[in-house]
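Class, carefully examine what follows:
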Amino acid sequence: MDCSLILHLALILICASQGLCQYEGYDYDTDYEPDPDVHYRPSIHFHHTVDYNVPNVPYATDCARECYCPPSSIVTMYCDNRKLKTIPQIPSRIQQLYLQHNEIEGVDRKSFINATSLREINLSYNKLKSNRIDSGVFATSPHLHQIILNNNDLEEIPSPISSSVERIFLGSNKINKVREQDLQGLVNVTMLDLCNNHIDNIKGKALSKMTRLMQLNICNNKLISVPASLPTSLMYLSLENNSISKIPDDYFAKLTNLTAIRMSHNKIDEVPLYMFNLPKLMELNLGHNKLKRIFYIPRSLEHLYLHDNEFETINITLMCPVMDQTHRLTYLRVDQNRLKGPVSTLAFLCFPHIQSIYYGEQKRSAGDSQTHLIPSYPLPDVARYAEDDDDDDDFPQYHREEHGPIVEEVDNEDEDDFQDYY
């Protein structure tokens, strides 16, 4: 073989071996610094000259030093729970003012001289006294919507109040009367709370001109008669825990928007047959009174509370003279009366949507035998595991609150004649 050919082949083999092994000593962990001349450019560019609609909220420098005005809500001033005895100066920009849980006894006009933007004032849980409140102090804010003065020592309603007010809370004070001038000009009020006071009289037609009033709370007072001339706009009436004994025959005749009437814990002994024939009435609570005679139930009524009265029978014919399947009653409570037998099963025909009749325990006179109309619940094992597999037979026909109604046939002799009742 020619020597030149051999040298040529050897040279080719040497070059090939160097080509295959050229990455054998490569250091893969070696880091390289980026080129100093290359700058990162974000994909989104922000220009300082463009307005991105981000609000610029200034820090409230005029906030009273005793209070806190959060930067996120510069129209609100929090002065609650600070043991304040007086109201600080209120800036003109403030719309919500919270002064509850302090020791404030009086309200000075000077504090509200600049408060022309106020919409809500909360002065609950203080020591406010009627003779320490400047006259007209709550009438200086033309945009005031809500005033909360509950849990104080007020003996009368502060007046005048701005005509723009919609909600007034005066519960848990020492107010003993309501005069016509106290509520004068309050044509926009929709809710008035006077519960837990000492009110024994509401003068004249003090409430009649509140033509937008929807909710009236006068519970836990000393009323001996119902307030006169309620506005027709009323939807919710609370008169619980008073000493009312009579309701005029036509008292509710014009109050066709009423959806709830609560008059429990009074001394009512009788109501006219069609007293509560109201087209929108959904809840009626007459518990803890002295009623003996039942009355007509409007078709719209869903919840009826008659517990702790003096009923001896529940005449379903009077409650529902026509069975047209349109009655919406779902709950009836009749415990703590003097019923001597179960409610007639006619109730389930008159009120097809009834879900519960709470019969409970009944009152017993000294000479009455202690007959248990309702078996104890849960029932004894012997009764529950009888040979009959039908568990429905073991349950009472009138039951505790947590159980649905179970119909049991009873004699209808207790149904009095509808015409002879009144």
